[in-house]
Amino acid sequence: GASMEGAGGGDGRRQRDENSVRVTNLSEDVTEGDLQELFRPFGPISRVFLAVDRTTGENRGFAFINYHHKDDAERAIRTLNGYGYDNLILHVEWAAPRAERS
């Protein structure tokens, strides 16, 4: 089909953005495949976005992972935040500010 999935545009109409996790402090040789491997054990992932510098082609040290289920995302954050990976300590947190503050 002519789906716009992954077309890079976007009007913010991502119904599952609240399940989005941000990872920072990545080493420059981390790939999207590495991130899939690291985050997939917690549950199905709808997308992985690794920020890459267009000029150098190196990643910029951060990425976003979107989970289908919020509790998978939560488990990934709990487990991987502070996790030593590739000689660096990962920082993993919710990408979007939580909307439903109780």
Q: Overview of this structure, please?
A:
- The protein has 102 residues and is α+β, with helices and mostly antiparallel strands.
- The protein is 19% helix and 29% strand.
- It contains two helices and six strands.
- It has helices at residues 32-39, 70-80, and strands spanning 20-24, 45-52, 59-67, 84-85, 88-89, 91-94.
- The chain has a four-stranded antiparallel β-sheet with strand order 2-3-1-6, with helices on one face. Strands 4-5 form a two-stranded antiparallel ribbon.
- The radius of gyration is 14 Å and the shape is globular.
- It starts with 19 loop residues before the first strand and ends in an 8-residue tail after the last strand.
- Mean pLDDT is 85; it is low at 2-14.
Which sequence of strands runs across the widest sheet? 2-3-1-6
Tally of separate helices: 2
Largest sheet: 4 strands, antiparallel
Class from secondary-structure proportions: alpha+beta
- β-strand amount: 25-35%
Helical content, roughly?
10-25%
End-to-end distance: 41 Å
Q: What is the helix/strand order?
A: EHEEHEEE
Rounded mean pLDDT is 85
Low-confidence stretches: 2-14
What gyration radius follows from the Cα positions, in whole Å? 14 Å
Number of DSSP-assigned strands: 6
Shape designation? globular
